[in-house]
C-alpha cells in the first residue's frame, strides 16, 4: 500500500511528546487553580461560531478560518456559515449577550481554550495558527468599579510567581493618560488612533524607524522625538505619576487619566502586588481602540525578547454589537502556547510536578498474574498511578521501558520474592533497590514517591 | 447601531451555564484521574490536520470540515489543505507513525479533546457536530498481549463506578466469533462486512426491519431469523461461552474466537471487574471493519435508550496508512458531550463536587478596603477560593449575588464587627450565620466548607 506521509499542517504544529505534554498540562492546571482561587467561573464556548458573530468585530476577516464540509451533498445549501473563533473575547460577548438574564453580575469567568488565526506562522517567535489562550474577564452590567482593574494584576502576580519563571513585571498604563499625552503634543484627535498604533511598537522597533513612521503620520520631528523620549523612558511608578502631574494642568483628559491611575496604583498595592512586580509604564499602548482605561502587559525581566506574556485592559462596552445593555469590563489573556514555546527555549520550564507514570509493576512469566493485579489494585485504591507491564518480556526490557516512560518506581517480584512475602522496590531516579514486606507495599511506595 | 443576533451555529451548540460547566468539568477531571491511575499518558493533537492525513481513512469525506481563510490575499495559493479532525484515532495513528522512535511501547495514551463531524445534528439523541471524545489506547509495536484487551474493561469499570450514574454493563464480543458465526450460517465471506453492519443495528432497530435488511443482502429468511435469535438473546457470559462451544466444532474461525474469548473473559474477572458489570454479548457488532479482536460497548442498565456510552475494540494495525511498522492496539472512546446531555436529561448528574465559588467577602462602604483584602489573602493562602465583592452595593444585593453564583459561604464584616475583632460567617446553604474571631477566620471557614 502506498503510504501517506505522517506530517503536520503548517502553523498547526504545536504537538508535544508525553513529557512536554505533562509540563504543558501542569501550566494549565496552575493557571486554572489560580483563576478559581480568585472566584472566576469556568466557561467553554464552541470552536465554531456563526460567521456574522465573528465578523461583528471588523478588520480580522483575513485571519478567520471558515469551515465547510469537504464533500457536500448535491444541491445542499448552507443556511448559516460557520467559522472558527480567533479569540475568546468575541465568544464571551456573544455568550453574555445571549444569557444576560441567567448570569450573576459582575460576571467573572475564565476560559482556557484554543483559538485559530490565519496569520503567517513564525515558530521562532512562538507564533502559530492554532494556540491556547487563557482568559479572565470581570464583566459588569452598566457599571464596574475601578477595583476590578486593580484586582487583575494580583491574579497575574499570583500565577507567574507560582510558575517560577524568574522575575517578571506587570506593566500598566492608562488609555486616558495616553490620549491626554498625545493631545498635549499637538497630535490631532483624528490621528490619535494611528499614532497610538505606531507607538505600540515602541518595545519592538528601532527608534529611527519608529520616528520615520511617526513622521509619515504627520507628527513633526521634534514632537516625535519628545514623545519617544517620554514614552520610552524607564521610571519608577511614582516618578511616572510625578511626571504626569507636571503635564496635567490645563489638560482635562490627562488630568482624569492621572487621577484614575493614582487610584488604581494605590489599590494594586493594597491588593498585595509589590512594586518589584508591577510598574506604571508610559510605553504600554495596546493597539486596540477597544480599551478605555487601564491596559496591561507583562514581561520577563531577564528575557525581554519574549515580549508580553499576558496582556489586556479595561473596556467600556463588551457586547455593543449584540445588545443595548452596556457591559463594561476588564480582562487579560495569557497566550499559553507561545509562552510555553518561549519558556522551553529559555530553559525555564520546571520538570512536570505530577506524572501518571508513578509505579510500573514488572511481570514475570510463570508467576500467577493475579498477584500483580492485587498489587495494582491496592496501589490504585490508594491513589497511586500504577501500570502493569502486560507483555511477556525480560526484566531488562521492562526496566528500559520504565526508564523511557519516566516511571518513578518499579516493583519487581518473582518466585523468590513471592515465596518470602516480599516485593523489591526500585527507585528509578537513584537506581537503588530495597525489599519491603508485601503487606507494607502501599506505605513503602508512598514513602518513595514523597 | 444595528445589532447582530447573538446565537449559536447549528450543531455547534453545546454550551453550558457556569453550574453546568462545573458539572461537565467534574466529569472530565474524574475521567482524566482514572486514565492516569492506570498509567496512561496525556496527549493533545492539533485540531486541524493535513487533508490527506484525515482522508487516509476512506468513506468519511462528507463528514469532514475543511478550513479556509474567510478572505484570502489576492493571488494567494494554499499549499496544503487543512481539515478538522473527526476522531482521535487517525491523529493518534499519525502521531505514533511520526514519533515512533521517541515513544516507549506499548504506548499508553489518553486524549480528551473535541472532534468535529458534519452530520445532521439531533439534540434529542445527543448528536452534535462538535463534541468531546475521551479516548485511551494501548498501542504495541509488532505485538500486543491479550491482557491489554482484558485491562480495558477494568478502566471503564473504574470510571463509571466512580461517576455514580446507576448500573451499567460493559458488553463485549469478539470479531472472530462473529465471523465464525455468520460463516456457520452460510453467509459468504464477501457479504460478511455488509451483513455485520446490518446486525450492528440489532439494539436500535425493530426485528422485522432488520430481517428485511438481511433479506436484501441475500440472507435467506430462516437463516436470518436464526441469526437474529442467536445474537439478540440475553444470556450470562458463561451461557454464551457454552453456546459457542456447541457451535465451534468444525469451524476453525469460531473455535479460535471462542478460545480468545474464554481467555479474555477469565482475565477480565482477574482484573477485578464483577460479572454484574460486564457480559459477553453476541449482539455487539461494531460497524468498523478495522476491529479484529475484542469489541466493547457500554450501556446503562436502567436507560437502554441512551445507547452505548463507551465503545471500542482491538485492532491489528493502527497506522498502516502511514508506516510499515505493524502497530496492533486496543482502545475505547467515551463520547462525553453526548453522555453529558443524556445524563442531564435523565437527572443522573451529581451536583458539582468542587466550585470556585467558595467564599464571598461582602464589602461595606466606609470601611477600610484593605481589611477585606487581608481576609482574602489569608483565605487564598490556605487554598480557599475567595472573591471580594468589588462594587459599592447594599448588603442585600451582595447576598443575592452570592446566592445566584452559588457561593457556599459569605463573610460579613462592618464597623461593629471590625471594632469587636469579629467576622460574621453566613452559611449560604442553611441560611444560618455565626460570628468568629478574626484570628480564627481561616479555620472557621474551612470547617464550614468541609
If you had to describe this structure to a student in words, what would you say it looks like?
- The structure is a homodimer of 450-residue chains.
- By secondary structure, chain A is an alpha+beta fold.
- Chain A folds into two domains: 18-345, BirA Bifunctional Protein, domain 2, CATH 3.30.930; 359-449, Anticodon-binding domain (Rossmann fold, 3-Layer(aba) Sandwich), CATH 3.40.50.
- In chain A, 38% of the residues lie in helices and 19% in strands.
- The first copy, chain A, is built from 15 helices and 16 strands.
- Chain A has helices spanning 18-37, 51-54, 89-98, 146-163, 175-184, 192-199, 207-216, 221-232, 237-247, 252-270, 336-345, 369-381, 395-405, 415-420, 441-449; strands at residues 41-42, 48-50, 65-69, 82-84, 107-116, 130-139, 168-174, 278-280, 291-300, 311-315, 329-335, 359-361, 386-388, 409-412, 422-427, 432-437.
- In chain A, the strands form three sheets. An eight-stranded mixed beta sheet of chain A has the order 1-5-6-11-10-9-7-8. In chain A, strands 13-12-14-15-16 form a five-stranded mixed beta sheet.
- In chain A, helix 7 packs across helix 8 (221-232).
- The longest helix of chain A has 20 residues, at 18-37.
- Chain A is elongated and about 90 Å long.
- The two termini of chain A are 50 Å apart.
- The mean pLDDT of chain A is 93.
- At the A-B interface, helix 1, strand 1, strand 2, helix 2 and strand 3 of A face helix 1, strand 1, strand 2, helix 2 and strand 3 of B.
- Strand 3 of chain A pairs antiparallel with strand 3 of chain B, so a sheet runs across the interface.
Amino acid at each position: 500500500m502506498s503510504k501517506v506521509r505522517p506530517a503536520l499542517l503548517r502553523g498547526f504544529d504545536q504537538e508535544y511528546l508525553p513529557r512536554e505534554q505533562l509540563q504543558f498540562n501542569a501550566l494549565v492546571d496552575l493557571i486554572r487553580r489560580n483563576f478559581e482561587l480568585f472566584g472566576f467561573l469556568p466557561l467553554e464556548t464552541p470552536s465554531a461560531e456563526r460567521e456574522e458573530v465573528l465578523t461583528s468585530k471588523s478588520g480580522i476577516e483575513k485571519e478567520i478560518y471558515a469551515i465547510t464540509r469537504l464533500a457536500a451533498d448535491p444541491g445542499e445549501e448552507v443556511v448559516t456559515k460557520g467559522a472558527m473563533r480567533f479569540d475568546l473575547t468575541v465568544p464571551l460577548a456573544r455568550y453574555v449577550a445571549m444569557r444576560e438574564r441567567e448570569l450573576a453580575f459582575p460576571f467573572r469567568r475564565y476560559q482556557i481554550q484554543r483559538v485559530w488565526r490565519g496569520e503567517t506562522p513564525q515558530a521562532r517567535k512562538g507564533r502559530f495558527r492554532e494556540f491556547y489562550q487563557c482568559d479572565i474577564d470581570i464583566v459588569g452590567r452598566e457599571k464596574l468599579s475601578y477595583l476590578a482593574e486593580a484586582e487583575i494584576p494580583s491574579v497575574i502576580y499570583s500565577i507567574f510567581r507560582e510558575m517560577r519563571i524568574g522575575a517578571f513585571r506587570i506593566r500598566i498604563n492608562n488609555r486616558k493618560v495616553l490620549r491626554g499625552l498625545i493631545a498635549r503634543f499637538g497630535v490631532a484627535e483624528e490621528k490619535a488612533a494611528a499614532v497610538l498604533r505606531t507607538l505600540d511598537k515602541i518595545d519592538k522597533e528601532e527608534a529611527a524607524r519608529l520616528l520615520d513612521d511617526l513622521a509619515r503620520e504627520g507628527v513633526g520631528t521634534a514632537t516625535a522625538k519628545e514623545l519617544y523620549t517620554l514614552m520610552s523612558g524607564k521610571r519608577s511608578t511614582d516618578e511616572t505619576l510625578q511626571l504626569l502631574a507636571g503635564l496635567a494642568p490645563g489638560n482635562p483628559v490627562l488630568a482624569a487619566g492621572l487621577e484614575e491611575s493614582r487610584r488604581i496604583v494605590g489599590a494594586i498595592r493594597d491588593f498585595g502586588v509589590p512594586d518589584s512586580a508591577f510598574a506604571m509604564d508610559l510605553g504600554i499602548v495596546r493597539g486596540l481602540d477597544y480599551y478605555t482605561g487601564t491596559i496591561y502587559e507583562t514581561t520577563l525581566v531577564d528575557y525581554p525578547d519574549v515580549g508580553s506574556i499576558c496582556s489586556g485592559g479595561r473596556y467600556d462596552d463588551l457586547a455593543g454589537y449584540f445588545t443595548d445593555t452596556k457591559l463594561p469590563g476588564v480582562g487579560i489573556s495569557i497566550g499559553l502556547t507561545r509562552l510555553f514555546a518561549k519558556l522551553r527555549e529559555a530553559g525555564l520550564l520546571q520538570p512536570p510536578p505530577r506524572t501518571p507514570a508513578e509505579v510500573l509493576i514488572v511481570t514475570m512469566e510463570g508467576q500467577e498474574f493475579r498477584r500483580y493485579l492485587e498489587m495494582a489494585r491496592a496501589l490504585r485504591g490508594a491513589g497511586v498511578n500504577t501500570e502493569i507491564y502486560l507483555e511477556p518480556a525480560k526484566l531488562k526490557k521492562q526496566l528500559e521501558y520504565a526508564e523511557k516512560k519516566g516511571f518513578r518506581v518499579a516493583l519487581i517480584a518473582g518466585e523468590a520474592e513471592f515465596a518470602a512475602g516480599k516485593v523489591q522496590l526500585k527507585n528509578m531516579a537513584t537506581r537503588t533497590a530495597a525489599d519491603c514486606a508485601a503487606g507494607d507495599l502501599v506505605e513503602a511506595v508512598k514513602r518513595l514517591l514523597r
